[in-house]
Amino acid sequence: MIKKIITDSGANILSSTILGQKHINVPLSIIIDNNIWLDDNNINIDNFIQAIINTKQKTSTACPSIASWLQAFAGADEIYVVTITSGLSATYDSAIQAANLYKEKYPHVKIEIFDSLSAGPQMRMIAERIAQDLNKNLTFDEVIEDVKQYQQTLQMVFILKDMKNLANNGRINPTIAKLSKLVNLNIIGTVTDAGTFALISKARGMKKCYPKLLQAMIDQGYNGGKVEIDHVNNLSEAQLVASTITSTFPNADISFSLCTALCTFYAENGGILVSFEK
């Protein structure tokens, strides 16, 4: 029996396995100055970041096509899909449509689509949980039940240092974005239950961000559990976030990963995403 874990590229996982289980990345696309950047192993992130910095035009993303999902599904008997939040992207809907088509042709195949209601490290933690369950030889239904329960224990907070891209796309006032950059104002946010992003607080300079970020984690139930931190070319400050966490929770299990293109697009240069178990 062939089993696959499939994530869209919002999970920042480009490897072909997760804890020994087969993994496939289905990339989203980002359009900058009429150039299409496919979020896969071939992308040059440094060039991608520079393209975001240089553009003065509105940018956009495109979810994976149904054909891309069908190609990823091919040959498997059990398929577990984790998508970026449906509150931000049509990727979940695209995956559902593909799954319905695939099951019409191959009715024996079992497919579950998990809406992460988040992005980045929180998606990856869900995918890793699926892999752990498969390594324990849980049945398809047991995996689904366990993962859905596990999702309820996860949360994510983040720090944004640059909001130029958000301004270009009409998400915030361009004047505010420029002023924030000028006075070194950083945004601390979180993911809502509906899978949308919400502002928690602001801080001038990164040193003031760290304790506020930790307090936001504690306010949302963090008590020393597993943490995964993704960053956009900012390992040094991601490590300072980790140090702030371990100063209060010395036994916290913390790991780091780089953002691929999609999360880089949303978090922007220097951004930090922190997912944790409550």
TrEMBL record:
Function: May bind long-chain fatty acids, such as palmitate, and may play a role in lipid transport or fatty acid metabolism.
NCBIfam families: DegV
Protein name listed in UniProt: DegV family protein
GO molecular function: lipid binding
Species in which this protein is naturally found: Lactobacillus iners
Keywords: Lipid-binding
